[in-house]
Design brief:
heterodimer; A: alpha/beta; fumarase; 26% helix; B: 280 residues; 2 domains; 4-stranded mixed sheet
Chain lengths: 186, 280
């Protein structure tokens, strides 16, 4: 596991996504789109109808977050990750549509890993509950779709040095499994 | 009868909603510090550092420590010599939640219906547990509960023959299966006894206790220590990414139960273990 922090820029290419390995510490700079349960449901329904998504997913990292309301003078409210397994049903479709990464917390399922391997995508974890700290690396955020969903609306974000760890990679590497095994005393 | 006005209740509840979300308890901060000293995983240590720094930012800037500012769960103890004036107590508590979540820029996470899933947009209704007690005071405890950890909770109707070992294995396996989902390091609330719903309420009440406190019965106090040790041997650690700090504490509450039953409940709590109280 490398202790050095890798600086990466988003959007990613499929090749860049494949180069990242479980355990890599990264600082992400660039664009991200936010979506969680309700927005994913709407987006996958749009794909089912053959419609376009509210943003071009090519190479984009999708951050599973529903931020708290923005205080005056701030770019965003507290904005830590939500639990990713709830997006297991939707993530493979988003990867197939072009997305190269997901950002959340907690392990993602087998179907997602298969799509990551097949198309080239990576899953980043960031610290759940470190929402006020994480918000400092989000420089801009604007709602671009599904405003009626409130905290669950789709936002376009500009981030700088956003701290994350590659938790599951495009080669089957899985820090949840490997990390637990390494520190187990059972 | 001692009179307490709904205006005072509204103001108190609103303030508690905000302070609970902005200020992490000293007991949790101390537990995080102690965990950091013992954590051997570099990734785990980095995560514990971020959690501690996050708590400092939240308090200094009056912003929520977590964007999931939770379901407003309240435990309200009404002294039987108290008379509420100016309106309805339940409505006053909900108005306090409404104001606290608005004025504190807290997230509104409550849906009016579980399957139709439309947000009520003001984080009401609160989930309120009322109790009648002696005296002329009104005690209000708020424990905002995030969805991620709540989703990893479980009630299990064990058989009496499963005994203490059965309960312990259930708790450890529940934590293991939760992995990184409930935002570890977690606090594990355990309810043993009661009925189906009674065990769940005991587990929830356990989470209101200070970390480091013990069950008054030495038998259960020893079980709390043993469970914490077993859970921290799992290895899943901070955020489930590996380490020695999977839980900061295990808190057990117990109650009487039926001769046929051994209900047990595990209420998972993330490291943002929020609860504040006021006595009027």
């Amino acid at each position: 596991m490398s202790k050095e922090k890798k600086h990466i820029r988003t959007p990613l290419t499929r090749e860049q996504a494949r180069e990242l390995k479980a355990g890599d510490n990264v600082l992400i700079t660039g664009t991200m789109y936010t979506a969680r349960d309700a927005a994913h449901k709407k987006m996958v329904e749009a794909l089912d109808r053959g419609e376009k998504l509210p943003f071009d997913p090519a190479g984009q990292v999708i951050y599973y977050v529903g931020p708290s309301p923005t205080k005056p003078g701030k770019a965003i409210g507290s904005a830590g990750p939500t639990t990713s397994y709830r997006m297991d049903a939707y993530a493979p479709r988003m990867i197939e549509a072009g997305s190269c990464g997901m950002l959340g917390k907690g392990e993602m399922g087998k179907g997602v890993v298969e799509a990551m391997k097949k198309h080239g995508a990576v899953y980043f974890a960031t610290v759940g509950g470190a929402a006020a700290l994480i918000a400092r690396s989000i420089k801009k955020a604007e709602v671009i779709a599904y405003e009626d969903l409130g905290a669950e609306a789709v936002r376009k974000m500009e981030v700088e040095n956003f701290p994350a760890i590659v938790a599951q990679d495009a080669h089957g590497g899985n820090l949840y499994v490997e990390g637990t095994k390494k520190y187990s005393k059972e | 009868m001692r009179e307490i006005s709904t205006d005072k209740i509204i103001k108190t509840v609103a303030e508690l909603c905000m302070s609970a979300n902005f200020e992490l308890g000293d007991d949790v901060k101390a537990a995080l510090k102690a965990a950091y000293e013992k954590e051997t995983s570099p990734v785990g240590r980095g995560i514990l550092e971020q959690i501690t720094e996050n708590a400092e930012i939240a308090r200094a800037e009056s912003v929520p420590m977590c964007q999931d500012t939770g379901y407003a769960v309240l435990f309200v103890e009404i002294g039987q010599d108290v008379k509420i004036t100016g309106g309805n107590l339940r409505e006053a508590i909900n108005e306090g939640v409404r104001r606290g979540y608005k004025d504190g820029y807290l997230r509104k996470s409550i849906l009016g219906d579980p399957l139709k899933r439309v947000n009520t947009k003001d984080n009401t209704p609160a989930l309120i547990h009322f109790d009648i007690v002696d005296g002329d005071k009104l005690k209000i405890i708020i424990a905002p509960k995030g969805g991620g950890a709540e989703n990893m909770s479980e009630v299990r109707m064990l058989k009496p023959s499963d005994g203490a070992e059965g309960v312990k294995n259930f708790v450890v396996e529940r934590v293991r299966k939760s992995g990184g989902n409930p935002c570890p390091p977690v606090v594990v609330g355990v309810g043993i006894g009661g009925t189906f719903e009674g065990s769940a309420i005991l587990a929830k009440k356990a989470l209101l206790r200070q970390l480091g406190s013990h069950h008054p019965d030495p038998f259960y106090a020893a079980m709390e220590d043993e469970l914490l040790e077993r859970i921290n041997k799992i290895g899943s650690g901070p955020q489930g990414l590996g380490g020695n700090t999977t839980a900061l504490g295990v808190l057990i509450e117990t109650g009487p139960c039926h001769i046929a039953s051994l209900p047990a409940a595990v209420n998972m709590q993330c490291h943002a273990a929020r609860h504040k109280s006021a006595v009027l």
